[in-house]
Amino acid sequence: MLLVTFFGLAIAALTPGVASAAGEQVRGTLTTGATGPIAGVTITVETPDGQEVGEGETDERGRFSVPVPGPGEYVVTLDTDSLPENVTVGGAGDTRTVTVEPNGREPVNFGLSDGQRGSGSDRILAVQLFVDGLRFGLLIAISAVGLSLIFGTTGLTNFAHGELVTIGAIVAFYLNVDADIPLLGAAVIAVVIGGLVGALNELALWRPLRRRGTGLVAALVVSIGLSLAVRYLIQTVYGGRSNPYEDYQSQRARDYGAFALTDRDLYSIIISLVVLVAVALMLQRTRIGKAMRAVADNRDLAASSGIDVNRVILIVWVMGGALAALGGVLLGLSDQIQWDMGFRLLLLMFAGVTLGGLGTAYGALVGSIIVGVFVQMSTLVIRDDVKYVGGLLLLILILVVRPQGILGSRSRVG
Known about the structure:
Layout: H1 2-14, H2 16-19, E1 25-29, E2 31-32, E3 36-37, E4 42-46, E5 52-57, E6 63-67, E7 72-78, E8 88-89, E9 95-100, E10 105-107, E11 112-113, H3 122-154, H4 161-178, H5 183-211, H6 216-238, E12 254-255, E13 260-261, H7 263-285, H8 287-297, H9 299-304, H10 309-335, H11 341-356, H12 361-377, H13 387-401
Parallel strand pairs: 1-10
Antiparallel strand pairs: 1-6, 2-3, 4-5, 4-7, 7-9, 8-11, 12-13
């Protein structure tokens, strides 16, 4: 209850920006991968009975914002005549019906096409999917490293780890959109808050349960309950909508020959690599990193050697929460922010951790990258909406051949 209350207060403390918005409005961004932000497009807002209540035009960043007289249902129409010649609307059409909540800023998304989708050879498409899979795998790895270290040091299978991902993304969203803090600064604050939430997990819940001698199965059930409570608390406060950050949304994909990437995706890959290399160096070169590996190998032996096991576990929780929050920020940058985004990523995190080898940070890195690349490239032969199934099938296949995972070691059971 203490954890759930803290999460509620922390999220609620960030939401007054929504209530203080200058009235109700609908907003959105018009952009495509090749054309980039589309300026000068007219957006009209009407009531369901056809009465016009407002009109706006996209700016140089492709963004529009149209005030509405109050909460309720509105019909948003895009003027197709004002689109560039090479840009057309998708099959969903040029109108959207949205419901604006009190003091809400309702996002409106129009599916636009610039004729570039599906162009090029299969070889180029495969390279593009590989690069997208590498980016996605690195995001999974950032979130999964903490999950793996927590399992290695405590034996806990933490089903609430996905909510740490969601908290990081939502904190950064409120700070960036409502508090007008640049996304880089908002991301730093979100990572710090993620670390604090991880520390609260350990100090308020898991350490007392360990002192009481709670078994791992009971702790797993507790983590499932905590996950459900926090997830639906987030849905209650944040809502079921999908929102983008204010920054770095209107970007045109750069052509790198065999593939194309937006600047935000490129920087996401670079940041992920830098952070993961830093974590690897910390584990190998620093005293606390060596202590983490010692506790993961044999907690009783580490304690008898003079290592403060509780302190090490607390640092692991702080690091795991911070990394999960950073993964959520980067995931929200490419896929937008949703209330259950961490839960949907959780199965792939488990797949990456198990595939690489339970309890090893390097195994989580290798397994997550393999899962991310396989999931994206599987869309060459299966539909995009079932691509996550491919990652789980890969997990089953590998575990049949090598049950301990890629970097795991065999151990005697019984």
